[in-house]
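Throughout our pipeline, every protein is held as a single compact record rather than as scattered files. Nothing more is needed to write down the fold, since each code stands for a local backbone conformation. For reference, a complete record is included directly beneath this paragraph.
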Amino acid sequence: MKASFYTSLLLCGSLVSLNTYATQHSNTQWVDTFIGTGGDGHLFPGAVVPFGMVQLSPDTDNPMRGVSPQPEIYKRCAGYHYDDHTIVGFSHTHFSGTGHSDLGDLLIMPMTGEIKTTPGSAENPEAGYRSRFSHDKEWSEPGYYGVELQDYNITAQVTASQRVGMHKYTFNDADAGHVLIDLTAAIYNFENKVIWSDIRLIDDHTLVAYRATNGWANNRQMYFAIEFSKPISEYNFINEDDKRYRCMDCLGKEKHSTIENKAVKIAAGKAVKFVASFDGLKDEPLYIKVGLSAVSRSNALKNLKTELPHWDFDKTRADAKAQWATYLDKVDVEGTKSQKRQFYTALYHALQAPNIYQDVNGQYRGVDGEIHEGKGFEHYTLFSLWDTYRALHPLLTIIDPDRVSSMVQSMLVHYQQSYENMLPIWSFHGHETWTMIGYHAVSVIADAYLKGIRDFDIDLAVEATINTANNPVYDAIPQYKKFGYVPMDVLPESVSITLEYAYDDFAIAQMFNAMGKKQLAKEYYARAMNYKNVFDKQTGYMRGKDSKGNWNPDFNPEAAKYMGPFTEGNSNQYSFYVPHDVAGLIDLMGGDDKFEGRLDALFDTHLSADMIKEHEDIAGLIGNYAHGNEPSHHIAYLYNYAGKPWRTQERIRQIMDTLSSDKPDGLAGNDDVGQMSAWYIFSAMGFYPVAPGDLSYAIGAPQVEKVTLKLAQGKSFTTFAKDISEENLYIQSVTLNGKPLTRNYLMHAEIINGGELRYQMGDKPNKTWGTAHSARPPALSKYKG
């Protein structure tokens, strides 16, 4: 037994060494997890593996209603903000770059000395369990985070697998210490956040816990299995509820178990915490493993035992980093150090979500609240579709097409389980939030189908697409079908809704056309032209219209009013949201030259802060162009459609140079679950999917010298930017696989089949390349079917 144990230990050490060697020479070295944790990037620096269910990260504050002002809540949507200097603990679930707060499940905080059970404040950390920290003593890499907790002289380190978080706490000058488990903590911890929770002591090493919360998602349930590497010497159940309740599932024991009543092995209620105390901490670190499940306590334990049956923190860290290396090494980039840091960090953020939402035994909690088996596919959650349909999901069709099928299947089972017969709109953790507009799951499904990714139920996809696009209870679909637009007296954000419905209808039509369903395709192509019904020819802008056909009398193209005709934007921005028929939009605006002038006015006209004060998300401004929010992301590429591709090249460089960096505040706004990062990746390579579903990518301007995409079946696609420099920002000529490319767009097949795209760069615009009408990207008014 002893020889076998040491042989296993040596083998384990050899594997860790191999992993360490491999990852030291991988592209993980360029990732800085702190990029986007400052400003309004809303990113977290903690431990996560690609698409992992666990995001184990430090929280620097838990803003509470009535304590912190609303801007502070928005600032800390990810739980951590780089400007902060205290940490309240380490929680296991976080959103990546969203503009809304929730999660922060199961906060753990180590401490020494006096036991404290409230967090205190950033101004007075001694009043609670929080600790000061310094960025000088803080470290991270993909799959790992570490920090010195100064108030306790504890070195805290965390890493993760798919469903399990692992903690390592080194008590540097104390032999005894404590660990607080706070089930009340949450990101945006408002009153009545916790509906119910409990924590149970199984033995002197093991706890299981549960909590249900209200927040962005209501009655969201999560289960936890917690295991310590050392036996608990003392423990305290703490219940801070003002009232007494009866626990319905713990054999009649009262949930208000107190610190004095140590014989009781469970506490349950709405304000439950637990403190575990340990001795002998000078001899070796304390390790903690936490398994997550949305299904049950037993599943949380099974996830823990299956994924991390050992206590080897270094191996877990190396395994997490190796998973990241596998993905990050799918792309090789040549450029400056700053460019590589930005590119690979963007790729790291783009591959964090959607998240696995399924236990190791295949079970998951569906949107109907029931427990289901994921048969034949992995189940995913966190579909921020208003953001991610634009670039993130198209990027995944290139980087990880096999995973896309499971994501589509996850959307389809959401449809089957939904009482409203809808595909997801903005969903996470088995809940539909109904946040944002459009029915953009159809774009993701259509784009995948058109790219040959079809390992899902095609008949069900057709059914779900039709029922979603014609659902009589969602937003104003009946009025949209009746009037050809959404009247502003029926629903706020009516113009944006109309425009985004029209794009979605185009994506549906493209899929049906490819399936040979010509009559259905014709119907949706016609619906896709509805954008014209909210274009006011007199003003030249998209404009609200009521059900009687009267234009909005209170119209200002710069105004972005809450509950007005536009969604997190104004008419200046949304007047360019016709990605599927830019040629038709150019005609409406008076032709190529006038369209170019309108684009210039968007970028060059200062936008008053008074016009956007009601919307925190309108950020990263260049004139009226708002790079920090999604409705602007395609706009710089629209010069191509007017035969002025060199203007796109200028704008892309302008955006890159002024709104991106490799610093903590290096994002212009919310990363929005990888969408901002996906924009950066595409734009750095020199092309962008303006209208997912038409299979084309508008060519912009490469920003790095060379990028190689390692594709399926051993293929690769490489972009070269010869002579690129600060001055040489203009494309002089392009070749594809050695042949001149005179059009200003690529097709998906040309990328996925592999090859070489070579840009010759120069310091003056080439005003002949890519300018002909035949050289411009496709548009609905140019072809139908």
In short: Residues 201 and 207 are 5 Å apart (CA to CA). The domain at 29-326 is CATH 2.70.98.10 (Beta-galactosidase; Chain A, domain 5). The two ends are 70 Å apart (CA to CA). Confidence is low (pLDDT under 50) at residues 1-18, 65-69, 243-264.
